[in-house]
Amino acid sequence: DSGVTQTPKHLITATGQRVTLRCSPRSGDLSVYWYQQSLDQGLQFLIQYYNGEERAKGNILERFSAQQFPDLHSELNLSSLELGDSALYFCASSVGGQGTEAFFGQGTRLTVV
Amino acid sequence: QQQVKQSPQSLIVQKGGISIINCAYENTAFDYFPWYQQFPGKGPALLIAIRPDVSEKKEGRFTISFNKSAKQFSLHIMDSQPGDSATYFCAASSTGAGSYQLTFGKGTKLSVIP
User: Fold this and answer.
1) pLDDT digits (tens, 9 = 90+) for A27-68
2) What stretch of H or E contains A7?
3) In what side-by-side order are the strands of the sheet with B72-77?
4) What is the pLDDT of residues B27-40, one digit of tens each?
5) Residue from A79, A77, A80 nearest A68 by CA
6) How many whole angstroms separate alpha carbon B62 and alpha carbon B41?
7) Which residues in chain B are contacts of A99 at CB distance < 8 A?
8) Sorting pLDDT into bands at 50, 70 and 90, what band is B2?
């Protein structure tokens, strides 16, 4: 157990809908990263937050947004969902903001039908 | 484009043998190179990591070899066991550049047969 908690584990939703994925980082970790894993693209970095502020942005679609709250948990919001958004979404956390020693949660499997 | 190229895509090794997975990178600003292990239905788990100031790092049966001039690094799993069967990802990041995202290789599916 990495100590990073993601909910829900599975999510099935229809095209056009909006969903929210939640991540609780390890105790003491200030940084949260979101990654998308798909069969064709592999693990792709979406966005990083450090102590409540956005630190880095990767290949994140405009339909996706995230935030980190004062208690350091983070949410990833996916809207206007398309079939191609079906993937595993992982959250990772680390103590510092430099991406080292990043520990991943078990992921949320999103299926868009 | 920041890329990390990983090979082979899949690997079958006999129990007790040595598993070797290779990665190559292009971005000379990368200065942190971790390896992750992922079992089906689980998230990637940090296995071992290296910085470019050392050429080798060993933790138990797992060793990272790093060749800075060739921009290559590899994972060696000694005495491979069936429980090592998983997908392995190499990754790289630049910790001093302001964007600390991990860039992952495509993964290697390792099967260790008895």
Assistant:
1) 999 999 999 999 888 899 999 999 999 998 998 999 999 999
2) strand A5-7
3) B4-7, B19-25, B72-77, B62-67, B56-59
4) 988 999 999 999 99
5) A77
6) 23
7) 32, 93, 95, 100-102
8) low
